């Protein structure tokens, strides 16, 4: 990533076995546009490009529209974030017939576990009531944007997020902020041993009535 936590696709030029990116990214929340993804796919037509869209329903545009043009694209989704069903461990993939056929041929040899009937039933119920989840995601995104603006007004450096979390650098030392919040039983993510983000805090966004 760049110093602004942007993924630089120019770094992907050259031979490799495949490409996997999270869009929006974890744990920055930064989003790559469809135009940028299109250029990446065009530049790597001979390899699989996997786009993890775990957070896409909190903001941004899905890459699903690109599937008809690029059979090297595979999109992964999860019910853990936007549907709040992390305990079910349910997800799915969307791709060309060619890629799906390869997965069908090998999945029983590599799957650590299969989806049980209870998880399948609950995930199906979530899809059938997706209007509720869309509304919830919009509320979460609204809280995220409101929270980001308020942090910026306080002089924090806020990374623009399209996910359900915010990465921000406080004016004070991060350790001081983390400990002060912890004393109030407010728990945020803090990575003192990770050099690039040791001065940042991670905040999870939720619904709120303001």
Write up what this structure looks like.
With 210 residues, the chain is of the alpha/beta class. The protein has 2 domains: 120 residues, Type I PLP-dependent aspartate aminotransferase-like (Major domain) (Aspartate Aminotransferase, domain 2, 3-Layer(aba) Sandwich); 75 residues, Aspartate Aminotransferase, domain 1, CATH 3.90.1150. 33% of the residues lie in helices and 15% in strands. The protein contains 5 helices and 8 strands. Strands 1-2-3-4 form a 4-stranded mixed beta sheet. It has a 4-stranded antiparallel beta sheet with strand order 5-6-8-7, covered by helices on one side. It starts with 18 loop residues before the first strand and ends in a 6-residue tail after the last strand. The relative contact order is 0.12. The mean pLDDT is 92.
The CATH class label of the largest domain is Alpha Beta
Sheet with the most strands? 4 strands, mixed
CATH arch. level architecture of the largest domain:
3-Layer(aba) Sandwich
Distance between the termini: 35 Å
Could you name the CATH homologous superfamily of the largest domain? Answer: Type I PLP-dependent aspartate aminotransferase-like (Major domain)
Spatial sequence of strands, sheet with the most strands: 1-2-3-4
Order of helices and strands: EHEEEHHHEEHEE
Low-confidence blocks of residues: none
**Average pLDDT level:** 92
What fraction, in percent, of the residue positions are helical? 25-40%
* Number of beta strands: 8
Radius of gyration: 19 Å
CATH fold group of the largest domain: Aspartate Aminotransferase, domain 2
Tally of domains: 2
Number of separate helices: 5
């Amino acid at each position: 990533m760049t110093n602004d936590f942007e993924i630089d696709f120019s770094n992907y030029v050259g031979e490799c076995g495949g490409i996997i990116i999270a869009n929006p990214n974890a744990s920055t929340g930064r989003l790559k546009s469809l135009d940028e993804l299109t250029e990446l796919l065009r530049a790597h037509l001979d390899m699989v490009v996997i786009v993890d869209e775990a957070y896409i329903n909190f903001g941004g545009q899905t890459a699903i529209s690109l599937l008809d043009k690029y059979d090297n694209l595979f999109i992964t989704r999860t019910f853990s974030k936007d549907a709040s069903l992390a305990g079910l461990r349910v997800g799915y993939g969307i791709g060309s017939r060619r890629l799906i056929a390869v997965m069908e041929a090998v999945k029983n040899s590599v799957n650590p576990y299969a989806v049980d009937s209870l998880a399948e039933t609950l995930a199906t119920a979530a899809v059938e009531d997706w209007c509720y989840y869309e509304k919830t995601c919009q509320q979460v995104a609204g809280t995220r944007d409101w929270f980001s603006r308020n942090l910026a007004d306080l002089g924090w450096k806020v990374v623009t997020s399209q996910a359900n979390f915010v990465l921000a650098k406080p004016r004070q030392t991060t350790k001081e902020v983390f400990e002060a919040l912890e004393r109030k039983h407010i728990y945020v993510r803090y990575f003192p041993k990770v050099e690039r983000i040791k001065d940042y805090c991670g905040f999870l966004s939720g619904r709120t009535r303001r």
